[in-house]
Amino acid sequence: MSSRKQKPQSQRTLSQDASPFSFASSPTLPPTLPPPSLPLSLNHNHIDDDVTTETNFSDHLDAPDLGGDSDLELDAVPAGELCFAKGKAADTVYWPAKVLQAKRPTSGRRKGKQKKMYRIMFLDKKEKDIPRDFFYISSQEEFCTCTIGQFESSHIDVVNDIEEDARRSNNTTTGRHRKIPSRSPSPIDLPNPPLLSGPDFCDLLLHHQLPYVTPILKAIMNEEATWALRRHEMYLKGGAARHKLMNEGGLRGAVDAKSADDLLGLVEKWCLGVRGRNFVGDRDEDIRVDDQLQDAVPERGREEEAAVPISTDSGSEANVSEAPSLHGVGVPELEQQDALPKVMEDPIYKAPPLETEKPPESEITTEPNSPAPPPPTQPPVVVEPEAQVLHQLRVRQRGSPGYEKLSPLEKVNYCLEVLLPEALNQILLWRIAERKSVEVMWDNVEKEQQLHECGEELLRETDWVMDVMRLRKAMASINGKSENTKSEMEGTLKGKTKALKKTRSGRNIIGSYKE
Predict the structure, then answer these.
(1) 391: pLDDT strictly greater than 50
(2) CA-CA distances (angstroms) from residue 43 to 20, 23, 56, 462?
(3) Which of 506, 494, 512 is nearest to 197 (CA)?
(4) CA-CA distance, 462 to 478, in Å (whole number)?
(5) What DSSP letter does each residue of 463-513 carry, written as one string?
(6) Mean per-residue pLDDT for 117-135?
(7) Does 476 have pLDDT greater than 80?
(8) Binning pLDDT at 50, 70 and 90, where does residue 178 land?
(9) Other C-beta atoms within 10 Å of 75: how many?
(10) End-to-end alpha-carbon separation of the chain, Å?
(11) Closest CA to 410 of 222, 223, 235
C-alpha cells in the first residue's frame, strides 16, 4: 500500500523536474534545455561531451489548442488599432473598424480550446466580438488588398483644386473687370438666432452657424471670457508661446478640412471685414471698400441710366453729343465697342419731330429699333443691398488693447490660431446639442468652463473612419499595392443592401454612420 501511494508522487516529481519548458520565471527567457536522456531528433542541436545530438521538443510539449492565437499575438493588437473587419466567416467584404479590447477566454474546461476574441467597433457604431482572423491590421498585406464595402460619406478631407477652379470659373461673368466671387459666403448678423437641436443645427449652412458662436469670440477678443483665454494669451505673448500654439493647428475634431477652411474665411470676414489675404490695415481699408462700391454698380444699370430720353428742347447735335458719355462710366472695352453703334443708330437719338408733326401710328408700331421702357417685372438691378453688405464689411471687430497693437498680418494669423479653434469648439458643442445658449452665460461661468473643456475634447477627436481609409491608401502607396477600385466594390455589393451612409449629423451626430 505504501509503494502505491508513493508512485504518483514520484511521477509528479519527475514531470516537474524533467519538463523541457519552464516559463514560470519569465516568458522571454530561453526554455530550460532537456537532459541528455530525452529522445533525439533532427530539429535541435545539443552538444554533450563533444557529441552533437539533436533534440525534438514537440513530443514533450502538450500545449492546448490556441486556435491560431497566442498570448503574444493577442497583446500585439492593442486597443484603438484601426483595421478592416468582417462580421461573419462567410463574408467577403470588409468594413472600417476599430479594436476596442482583446477578450481572453472565460475560465472553464474548454478554456484552452477557445479562440481569443476581440471586441470590434464597426463604422456604424455597432460592436461585435470576432476572432483574430476576421480582421486585418496595417501590418498585414491584406489590409491594403482586401475588398472593402461601399459607403457614402459627407466628409470632404481635401479641396479638389480642379473642381474649385471650375466652379469659380463658372461663377465669373463675361466682364473682364468683374471680380471673382469669394469662395465662402459673407457672414450674416442674427441678433437673436433661434435655439435649435443638434440635428437641426447641423442642417444649417456654415454662415448661418457662425452667429451662434460670435458672442464667445467677442468675449475672447475683449479678454472677458477668462475660461477660454489660453490661446489668446499665448498668441499675444509671442515668441515660443506663439510657436507652440502654431503646433496645435489642425485641430478640428470631426469637422472636415473643407468646412474648416470655409469657416476660416467666414471668421476672417467677421473679424477683419474682408478675407485675410485682402486685409492691409485700417487706413487703406476705407479706400479699398470705396473701390469695391464703385465696381459693384452693374453694367446694365449704367446703360439704362445713360439712355434716359433727352429733352426735346435740345437739337440733334446735342443729342448725338451725349453718346460719348457712355465711355465715362467704366464699361469694359469690348462692351463699349458694341454699345456705341447701337446708341448712334437708335431712333431715340434722332432729332425729335415738331409738335405740329405727329408720326403715323404705323411707323411707331413697325419701327424695329424703337426703345421701350423696361417692363415693371424686370426692374434694374438694385445696388443698395450689395452696397449695404460691403458697407458692413468695413466695420471690423475691436478687441483688447493687446489685440489692437497687433500688426495687420498678426491679426490675420490671430483669426487662424485663436478664433478658428474657438469657433470650431463652439460649433461642435452645438452639433451634439451640449450648448443651449447663444449668449454667454455670465451668470453661470462654471457651466461655460465645462462646455469649453468638453469642446476641447471634441477638437482633439478625429473621424477614425476616414483615418483608416487614409492609412490604407498610405500603406498601399508604400508597399506598391493597388487598392480595389470603386467598380470592384460595387460589383461585390451588387444585389445587396449593405452599403452604409454617413449623415451630416455628428458623433451621435458628427461622424456617425447609419445603415
Answers:
(1) no
(2) 14, 21, 5, 50
(3) 506
(4) 23
(5) -HHHHHHHHHHHHHHHHTPPPPPHHHHHHHTTT----EEE-SS-TTTTT-E
(6) 92
(7) yes
(8) very low
(9) 9
(10) 72
(11) 235
| H or E stretch at 258 | helix 257-272
Q: Are 212 and 426 in contact (CB under 8 A)?
A: yes
Written as one letter, the residue type at 398 is R
Task: List the beta bridge partners of residue 445.
Answer: none
Distance CA 232, CA 92 (A): 52
CA 274 to chain centre: 23
Q: How many CB atoms lie within 10 A of CB 469?
A: 21
Whether residue 471 has pLDDT greater than 60: yes
Long-range pairs of 250-254 with CB within 8 A, sequence gap ≥ 24 = 251/421, 251/424, 251/459, 251/460, 252/424, 252/459, 253/424, 253/428, 253/458, 253/459, 253/460, 253/461, 253/462, 253/510, 254/428, 254/458, 254/461, 254/462, 254/463, 254/506, 254/507, 254/510, 254/511
Q: What gap in Å lies between CA 16 and CA 389, rounded to an integer?
A: 89
The pLDDT of residue 109 is 62
State the cell numbers at 302: 449704367
The 8 Å CB, 24+ separation contacts for 350-359 are: 350/316, 350/319, 351/315, 351/316, 351/319, 352/312
Q: 8: Cβ–Cβ under 8 A, 6 or more apart, which residues?
A: none
Structural domains of the chain ordered from first start: 35-64 (no CATH), 66-155+465-515 (2.30.30), 161-292+392-460 (no CATH)
252 HSE (CA, 13 A, CB side): 20
Q: What is the DSSP letter of 134?
A: G
Q: State which amino acid sits at residue 73.
A: E
pLDDT of amino acid 377 = 56
Using CA atoms, how far residue 292 sits from 297, 409, 504, in Å, is 9, 22, 36
Nearest to 19 by CA among 63, 53, 79, 51: 63
